[in-house]
Amino acid sequence: MNKLIALVLSLALLQNADAQNYPVDKRRVLFHDAVDKYQKKVYSLDGKADSTIMIARDETVNLQIEYALIDKVDELQKTIELDSTLSHNAKIKYLRGLEIMLKGYVTNYKKRDFPVTMAPALVNGFEQGMLLDAKGQSIVPVVNNNIYGVGKILIDCFMVLPENPGTQASKTIIIRKYLASHPAEILNTLKTNTDLPFTDSLIAVAAHNDPMRLYDFASAHDKLSGRIHSNQDSLVQTIVLLSKSKSGQLYFPFLDMLVKNKITIEEIDKQKENDISYYKLLVKTRVDYVGRVIGPQKDTPMEMDALTKMMVSKAKNAFISQINGLHDSPDPVRFKVLEPLNAQELYYLCVLGEEEIYTSSYIGVFKRIFQKMKVPRGDSLILSVNADYFRKFIKMAAAYNTLNDFLKSMPQENATSLMRAFMFGLEKSATAKNMEDAVDVADSYSSIFEKNKQVAQLMLDEANWNFTRCQRNNDKNGQVVYMLEKTLFESADTSKNIDLAQKLGIPPIYSVNYNALVDDSGRIVQQVFFYGDEDKDGQNSYANFMSLFRGKPEWSVAENPNWVTIKSTKGKPVWIFANKPLYGENDPDAKAQAALDQYLDSKDIHPTIFIHRGHSYHVKYSLEQIQPSAKIVILGSCGGYNNLHEVLSISEDAHIISSKQVGTRTVNEPILEEINKAIRNGKNIEWMSMWGDLSKRFTGEAKSRFEDYIPPYKNLGALFIKAYKKQVEVEEN
User: Fold this and answer.
1) Which residues pair with 635 in a beta bridge?
2) What is the mean pLDDT of residues 450-457?
3) Which residues, if any, are the signal sequence (predicted)?
4) How many Å apart are CA 498 and CA 299, to the nearest integer?
């Protein structure tokens, strides 16, 4: 059928090619030429200056576009020129309209609202509009019956003087068409068009689409704010009420309940001034909202994001920052602030504070969750929060070695069911932009494989079962997700010798080629971040680090007030820049890092190895300074394992070493020593053999600490991100 359509169109083009010789008044030659000029531009849209149009994938569509914009326009030119009922000025007007139409198509080519396939509708709309305009009638029906892109260009065509009587009304129609597909632009548009006939209905739409944004506009003092305040929609009126309060942001998490009269502002007022009471109300509301989402009604409460963001803020600022800050204090002092919180409220501190919570803080909170329960069972805990963030909780329990305790707190059959749920439905939330659940599952497996072989086998079995399920359902995304999960799980058993790089089509993960680390000057550059601490941890770490180089004949050390430069004197050139861990007012260590960054930038020096040293609460500052040139990133810190994803957003192929728990100098130094020995000798870095050699160097507590360090080839969460993105790219191409 497509071939038949293409043949018919081709014949039409051939027939029309011989029918374009007609007399043109010399006064209008330039106007015809202007139309012809844009027709030539249509031909060149595909990047080739020839006489074919190839801007759509389908050959038939390309022929339809050519027929409309070339042959049909040629016909219209002839019709206009030879129409004896049209005056000279009218003919000029319509020829200029044709030029504007073609220009609009060419100018807006590839824009979302102007699909290339609109060409036939655009030319037909122009012809219909011209017939109406010639009779002095409005073009509103034509604009109303076409998509936004067509209507927008047609209005421009008929604004040529004398302007069509329907252009102003058509502009209003076009605004409504545009906002129907771009609801996020409603308020910005209304700000300069407050007197549209449908302003009130659009304000109500904006309120339901983005209540927080309407709140911001309602808080202003302008004409639009006045229209918002006078709007009678119940949601709008509730938002207006909140906008009049200085504490409006504190009410917003409860907007859904306020609109449905399930809570009053007075009831919130009783809680909002006290961090503990307010946090408790937030948690209670979150549990209720999640229950509605997963319940039979599948209800989605308004502003769940606002609720979650406020919970994160309160969890971090009111609780986690305090227990982190008191990490050197005895537990009764350190965790006193948590005494009023129940098990559910402590649970949310863990899952919402993942990026901030120290290892020791997490362990303390985890213990107190079960101390607060009358019957300390993990399954009861998960049910009490409607399974909210349960994958995150399990992932963190695995990372911090508390998963066995968690699973043992419930009957075996319930633990099995929970882990099956942990593995089920990952395809529903996995996208190229957000794969958090699937990554959490992959992240957890390395720890589980080392600590609980039975649970690890269950996860592998479930990955295989779910893969088969997705095959049966012809779910391609699900097949990709579970294929990656089971492949990564199988690779955790190094005796199987699975080459993940080859199997998943990702860059090498078992080694780093020496040449990949070398810059244009033939050297390997490292940058090390140190922090001055009140407890001297950073200063002591710096002293230990420098002992690897001071007085060693193979290294030279040059001092600077803000940093130290270390260079190899034997073997291949290796340069190491480390800021000094300065301590005092106004963050002198931050200034030292900034001075070093500026120096490296001025010399066009781009490190390929980045090393963070110090407490986990400093990690975010190190991550801000890592460059895309990074090939190896070492996060020797507490909780560094949880920062993998951010590193990969900076350098997607970086090899990452991190610690699941407490980073320690006794492990960090040997790792750095082995890396430097390899690159100074011009050798590739082979992670598996290096890790095997390192494991023989540690005994006792140091060996236990070393086992919490994750080498690049075991960073399954990071590997999932790389592999999933690769699979998505393959599917798209």
Assistant:
1) 612, 658
2) 91
3) 1-19
4) 45
Among 350, 360, 361, 430, which Cα is nearest to 396's? Answer: 350
What pLDDT, on the 0 to 100 scale, is given for residue 338? 98
CA distances 74 to 20, 70, 78, Å, are: 7, 6, 6
Cβ within 8 Å of residue 7, ≥6 positions away:
none
Q: Does 162 sit behind a cis peptide bond, omega within 30 degrees of 0 on the bond before it?
A: yes
Q: How many residues does the chain have?
A: 733
Parallel, antiparallel or unpaired: strands 563-568 and 685-686: unpaired
Residues 6+ apart with CB under 8 A from 51: 43
Average pLDDT score over residue span 683-695: 95
To 10 degrees, what angle do helices 412-423 and 453-472 make?
A: 50
Contact 415, 427 (CB under 8 A): no
For the record, the structure tokens of 137 come out as 């009638």
- Comparing CA positions, the residue from 555, 568, 535, 546 lying closest to residue 668 is 546
Contact 487, 460 (CB under 8 A): no
Gap between the Cα atoms of 628 and 647, Å rounded: 9
In whole angstroms, what is the distance from residue 93 CA to residue 316 CA? 66
pLDDT at 83 over 50: yes
Which pair of structure tokens corresponds to residue 303?
Answer: 């502003």
Give the DSSP letter of residue 67: I
Which tokens belong to 295?
A: 């319940």
Q: Which residues contact 380 (CB under 8 A, 6 or more apart)?
A: 373, 410
DSSP state of 518: B
In this structure, which amino acid lies at residue 654?
A: A
Cα 169 from Cα 154, distance rounded (Å): 13
Contact 530, 541 (CB under 8 A): yes
Across the chain, mean pLDDT equals 91
The whole-number average pLDDT for the span 613-627 is 87
Q: Which amino acid is at 653?
A: D
Burial class from Cβ neighbours inside 10 Å (0-12, 13-18, 19+) for residue 375 reads exposed
- Does 510 have pLDDT greater than 50? yes
pTM of the model: 0.76
In 3D space, the residue among 674, 655, 665, 645 whose CA is nearest the CA of residue 581 turns out to be 665
Distances (CA, A) of 261 to 206, 230, 238, 297, 415: 21, 21, 11, 19, 39
Query: Which of helix, strand or coil describes residue 25?
Result: coil
How far apart CA 657 and CA 641 sit, in angstroms, is 8
- In whole angstroms, give the CA distance from residue 641 to residue 709: 8
| Residue matched to tokens 């306020």 | 258
Q: What is the pLDDT of residue 559?
A: 95
C-alpha R_g of the chain: 33
Q: What is the structure's pLDDT at 351? A: 94
Tell me the angle at which helices 343-352 and 304-314 cross, rounded to the nearest 10 degrees.
Answer: 90
Write the single-letter amino acid at 102: L
**At which residue do the structure tokens 């009140």 appear?**
534
Q: What is the pLDDT of residues 300-312, one digit of tens each?
A: 899 999 999 999 9
Tokens, residue 364: 């303390």
Q: What tokens does 58 get?
A: 């389908």
What local confidence, expressed as pLDDT, does residue 288 receive? 95
Task: Annotate 20-37 with b (16+ C-beta within 10 A) or e (fewer).
Answer: eeeeeeeebeebbebbee
> Could you tell me the two tokens for 387?
């399974």
Q: Are strands 574-579 and 632-636 parallel, antiparallel or unpaired?
A: unpaired
Question: Does the CA dihedral 28-32-34-35 come out positive or negative?
Answer: positive
Lowest mean pLDDT: which of 361-365, 542-546, 634-638? 634-638
> Which residues 6+ apart lie within 8 Å of 432 measured at CB?
724, 725, 728
